[in-house]
Amino acid sequence: MRGVDKADMLCALHPIPFRSKKWYIRIAWRLFDRMVINSWLLANHLGKQNVNWKNSRLCDFKTEIACTLLKGSVALQRPALVPIQRRQHSGSDTDENNRSKSDRKKRDLTRTIPRILRYDGNEHWPKFVKSRLRCKYEECELKTQWTCSKCELHLCIQPQHNCFVAFHTKQ
């Protein structure tokens, strides 16, 4: 009975607020809640084997799923803001000049796109815009006028290298 008690406890932590007189709607919401909790438990169990996995809380996991489902609609898209960490200058420019280009840290994205949204392969279309900004793919330094319609990021589309495809495919 340990599994049943734990499942009931996790359902009671963050219940889905629903009210319905129809019995089948209550069952559907309960099943959906159980699916989310089971996937969270499975992700945490499998995440212990992966070093890069960040252990998340159930509430954060449910929020991320809700945001991903809402991102499916173009009308409800909103950029996720992430604070930028600034480096402190040591005051000596000689150390900076001695460092080679390969030793420098790659630039971080100012916005992070959830992996589920980035690799879902659904409704990622190149869109031409007037503003010419730097490509947000880590390995590219060119400026481009193409953005992803779903991710809202500037990505290159060129015959030599296609950052748009490289950004949306797992490596």
- The helix/strand series, from N terminus to C terminus, equals HHHHHEEH
Main sheet specs: 2 strands, antiparallel
The total domain count is 2
Q: What percent strand? A: 5-15%
The neighbouring-strand order within the major sheet is 1-2
Radius of gyration from CA coordinates: 22 Å
| Relative helix content | 25-40%
Weakly predicted, low-confidence segments: 74-78
Shape: elongated
Provide the structure class. mainly alpha
Q: How many beta-strand elements? A: 2
**Please, what is the average pLDDT?**
76
Discrete helix count: 6
Q: Whole-Å distance between the termini? A: 42 Å
Biased composition (Basic and acidic residues): 90-106
Region (Disordered): 86-106
Protein name: PiggyBac transposable element-derived protein domain-containing protein
Organism: Didymodactylos carnosus
Give a quick precis of the structure.
By secondary structure, the protein is mainly alpha-helical.
What features would you describe in this structure?
Residues 90-106 have a biased composition (Basic and acidic residues). Residues 86-106 are annotated as: Disordered. The chain is mainly α and 171 residues long. The chain has two domains: 1-71, no CATH class; 106-171, no CATH class. It has six helices and two strands; from the N terminus they run H-H-H-H-H-E-E-H. The chain has helices spanning 2-13, 23-47, 58-71, 93-98, 115-118, 163-167, and strands at 126-134, 143-148. The two termini are 42 Å apart.
